[in-house]
Design brief:
Layout lengths: L2 H9 L9 E3 L3 H11 L8 E2 L5 E3 L1 H12 L1 H12 L2 H11 L2 H4 L3 H11 L1 H7 L7
Antiparallel strand pairs: 1-3, 2-3
Helix pairs in contact: 1-4, 5-7, 7-8
């Protein structure tokens, strides 16, 4: 899995545990969500602390745990699958650093995942800083 795939997973909410939770803003969405998680008894469905979040008590707890830990899970997944240089190169292009010859945003995004010490030791920056 490359860095772009991990980002898409993150941005599409695929790092969150939806096994027994869903979002519903209408009766139709509530019924669809209940069917998706296999619950037929409405008394088992509770509202979560986020607007529209519904599910079983256990499902809400799992979702909130994954939500709170999403950033750490994201960093862990990136570190397991990517090098700091790969992340920097992706972000350099993503932030279009070459047009303005300033890689600060790419550099900072890479530091966010790996930390400054590792990035400074392992990343060959494209811009003169």
């Amino acid at each position: 899995m490359d860095y772009g795939d991990i980002l898409m997973k993150r941005y599409k909410g695929k790092m969150l545990d939806y096994s027994e939770a869903f979002f519903a803003f209408s009766q139709e969405q509530l019924e669809e969500g209940m069917a998706k998680i296999g619950v037929t008894d409405k008394s088992l469905i509770v509202a979560g602390p986020i607007n529209g979040l519904c599910g079983t008590n256990d499902g809400i707890n799992k979702f909130m745990y994954s939500y709170k830990n999403e950033e750490e899970n994201f960093k862990k997944l990136v570190k397991e699958n990517c090098t700091p240089q790969q992340v920097y190169n992706f972000e350099f292009n993503n932030y279009e650093c070459g047009y303005i010859w300033d890689d600060t945003e790419a550099y900072n995004a890479t530091i966010y995942v790996f930390g400054k010490e590792i990035v400074d030791a392992q990343v060959k920056r494209r811009c003169n800083q």
